[in-house]
Amino acid sequence: MKSIPFVIIFSFALLTNCNDYSSQTQESTSTTQTEVSQSQIIDLTHEFSDETIYWVTAKEFELDTVYKGETDKGFYYSAYNFATAEHGGTHIDAPIHFSKNGQTVDEIPLEHLIGNAIKIDVSSKAINNPDYQISIDDFLNWEHKHGSIPNGSIVLLQTGFSKYYPDKKKYLGTDKRGEAALKHLRFPGLSHEAANWLVNNRSIHAIGIDTPSIDHGQSQYFKSHIKLLERNIPAFENVTNLNKLPQKGFKIIALPMKIKGGSGAPLRIIAILDN
Ligand SMILES: [Zn+2]
Could you report the per-residue pLDDT of 64-81, keeping only the tens digit for each? Predict the structure, then answer.
C-alpha cells in the first residue's frame, strides 16, 4: 500500500519578551515533530448517504444537487445542499441532549474530543445478544489486564454491531420508522450500573460505541445517557472499525460540526495508533 507520511507540527512558543520578536523566534521557540503514517490512521466514521442509519423518529440524510457537470464556461463544477438530523449516522451526543444545564455541542472542550483512548471489546458476548448490556465486570476485566483506566481517557465500547450496518433490521432491530418502531429497537448498550461506576470511580473525557445509542435498544429511561451527559461526558454513537483498534495505545480525534446551541452533530472521528 502506498504510504504518504505527513507531519503534524506542534509549536510551543514560549513568548516572554514582547519587545524583541527576533530573539523570541530564535531562542524561545521549541518545535516537536511527530510523523504519522497512513497505516496508523483508522477512520471510525460511517459515510453519510441514503443508507445512513438514523434514530427511527429522526429525519434521514438528504443530499440535493445544486449543480453537477460542465459549465458553459468550460470548467467542471459540482455543489450540493444537505440536510441532517443531529442524531444519525456517526454523531456526537452533547451533554445538553439529556442534561438541561449541560454543554451544547459548540461548548464541548476540544481536549475532551482529542486524546488518549482505550477500547473495551465485548463483541464475543454482544454480537449474538442484541440485549447485551456492558457491565462493571467488563471494565474490571479490562483493568485486570491493562491497569486502571487512565484519567482523561476516551473510552470506546466494541459490541461488534457495526458489522451489521447499514442493515437496519440487524443493526437497529427494525426497519420500521416512527414512534411505533421504538419498541422494536434491539441492540447492545452500556448498562446504567456501569455508567454509574464509570462516572463515580474513573475520570474519562468521552465515551463511544458502535451501536445507535449508548443505552441499549430496549431502554425506556436512557439512564446511561443521563449519568454520562450530566457529568459533561459526551458520547459518540454509530462509530465503526473498532475491530481495527488495539485495547490501548492509540489516540482519538473526534470533531463534530460546530452547531451553535446544538444537542449533537455529525462527527468525523479517527484513531491514530501509537508507534
Ligand atoms: Zn445521539
Answer: 999 999 999 999 999 999
